[in-house]
Amino acid sequence: MSAAELQPNAQMLEMSHVSHRYRDGPGRGAAAAAVDDVSLEVGPDEVLCLLGPSGCGKSTLLRLAAGLERLQEGRIRLRGLTVADPASGIWLPAERRKVGLVFQDSALFPHLNVLGNVAFGLDRLKPAERERRARALLEQLHLAEYARVFPHQLSGGQQQRVALARALAPAPPLMLMDEPFASLDTSLRSQVRDDVLHTLKASGSATVLVTHDPEEALFMADRIALMQAGRIVQIGTPEQLYCKPVNRFVARFFGELNELPGRVEGGAVRTPLGPVAAPGHPEGASVSVLLRPEAVRIVRIREAAAGGSHVLASRLLGRYSLIHLCVHDEDGREYHLHAHVPGVQLPAPGQCVELALDESQVFVFPAEAAAV
Ligand code: ADP
After folding, report:
1. Is the pTM of this model over 0.90?
2. Which of 59, 63, 68, 226 to mutate to test the pocket of ligand 1 (most atoms within 8 A of CB)?
């Protein structure tokens, strides 16, 4: 890839109408596409997370971008240069795409110590500069004390952090990462994510990060592409996906939801917690109102009074309290809702509550057809 071929203002990665079928594909059947007509762009400095359940095609998409899987359909461009376009017979192999790669368990070079591993990709630098850069990366990832240690002396989690440092050291213009934090202990994971995010932002590397963990995507991403069955269901900022999900799959992917059935009357749905606006839904339509547990606000706690909304149980779950509530609609039907409230708030079972809704975390979708 010569510099003259590259367009300075181009997107770092452009995938257009990319599809991929494994010949002997398990899962959704041999004929089903692992990736089905996906288009996306990643801008300079941007962290894009590919998020979705296992088997939805995230890794395949990443491998296609890297050139580890031969493109069958569509077109891929890196910094404006077409690297894969089967219709035109264009194919640039992985080693010439100059992208950084990190996988869940990346292998280190066993004969090189940690410093040697991290310095490995810096061969264009003078030796002193190489060592300075490698040591800086080890500092950033809290690995400085391991510089002279060999891979077999490290735990799996430490090896993965060294692999991250090695991939980040050359500050590649595009970094492709497939579940890079999955093998780390929970206690270390958030620290390493934070370190990696700061390093990526400091180096200006555009990044595609595969994860099945919505919290990780919210933490890392400038934009999230949520995938289902080989397709992108919604792509946008974390706020857009969390607060404006396009369907119930997207809404549910980010956590548990309370669901209340209802009917649109005068542009709104009456719920036990008050009316909820239903713009875009036809009058009379049957709908489901989905409420995130944090949307259910406890305005006041009172002593028991017959028939009102009341507490069934309360549990402290660490950062927030989960309150099980019993509410009733106008016809006296009973519903069990979950509310998440910050900190330690543990009202006693039977206590009556006055509830309100945070409408930014309330979503109205057409009712699901009953199973036949
Ligand atoms: P994800 O990364 O979201 O878990 P993958 O891209 O790994 O999903 O897989 C997408 C689909 O392709 C799945 O049905 C999976 O079983 C199938 N698949 C993945 N890799 C191969 C392969 N090497 N050979 C055959 N089928 C594969």
Report:
1. yes
2. 59
